[in-house]
């Protein structure tokens, strides 16, 4: 039968504490990133519904103006990734 030494208990506790903390911190960052990504996506969708080419309110409207009225070279660069980096949201 193996008895744990105080060093073993300390090492185990430290490992559980550090990894548990890191995982919860990563989960928090992921949840926050998902919320920000959803907010941005919702804003893009809302701006599309209310777009008025004669009333450009902000850069999201500029995005929609370019998507609808820009030349082909301008439009090819205007994707939703213009606003977000999808790797942070997932």
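^ Assign residues to that structure.
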């Amino acid at each position: 039968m193996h008895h744990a030494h105080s060093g073993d208990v300390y090492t185990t506790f430290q490992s559980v504490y550090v990894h548990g903390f890191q995982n919860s911190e990563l989960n928090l960052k992921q949840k926050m990133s998902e919320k920000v990504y959803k907010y941005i996506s919702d804003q893009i969708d809302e701006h599309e519904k209310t777009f008025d080419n004669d009333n450009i309110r902000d850069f999201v409207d500029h995005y929609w103006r370019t998507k609808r009225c820009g030349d082909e070279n301008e439009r090819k660069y205007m994707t939703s990734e213009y606003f977000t980096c999808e790797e942070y949201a997932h």
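The radius of gyration is 24 Å.
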